[in-house]
Write a structure and sequence with these properties.
- The protein has eight helices and no strands.
- With 155 residues, the protein is mostly helical.
- It is globular.
- The two termini are 33 Å apart.
- The model has no long low-confidence stretch (mean pLDDT 82).
Length: 155
């Protein structure tokens, strides 16, 4: 049922139409937007479902264990976005070169965060089922982000 509705929505969104032309993007780029949105929602759904399965002690250890990580993990990502914006708008560097370097650094950051998060979850003695769902959610997010950037760098 949900799969049919998602297919219908994607067919409508990706169909040729004046909104696509007004937005100044291609079908491929529109698919990138859809992919990242679906990945974010699906990833969040999986994460929340896994979190609900934890008992109170595990939830407390998880929140305490990641308190400093939550506060500082966005700093490198925001710096990366700022540098990308600066290099693409304020310099004459090739968009393809900057985009490829940005995408490579973004993937490296995500992989590093994933490894560090998995180590932290193991150190906090989180259940294996939760660690698996956490990893699945991160993998789905990575695929969505990868497709989003592929569609914009490839066009």
């Amino acid at each position: 049922m949900q799969e049919t509705k998602l297919h219908e929505l994607s067919t409508v969104v990706l169909s040729e139409g004046p909104w696509l032309e007004r937005a100044g993007c291609s079908r491929m780029q529109a698919s990138g937007f859809i992919a990242i949105l679906v990945a974010i929602v699906l990833s969040r759904f999986i994460s929340e479902r896994g979190y609900r399965e934890l008992n109170s002690d595990e939830k407390l250890r998880l929140m305490d264990g990641f308190s400093s990580t939550r506060m500082y993990s966005m700093v490198p990502l925001l710096m990366l976005v700022a540098v990308f914006w600066f290099l693409t708008t304020q310099t004459d560097l090739s968009r393809e070169v900057v985009g490829t370097a940005y995408f490579g650094l973004l993937i490296a950051y995500i992989v590093l965060r994933t490894v560090l998060n998995q180590r932290k979850l193991a150190a906090l003695e989180m259940p294996t089922a939760y660690r698996r769902s956490f990893m699945a959610a991160q993998a789905i997010s990575l695929v969505g982000v990868a497709w989003f950037f592929f569609t914009f760098l490839g066009t």
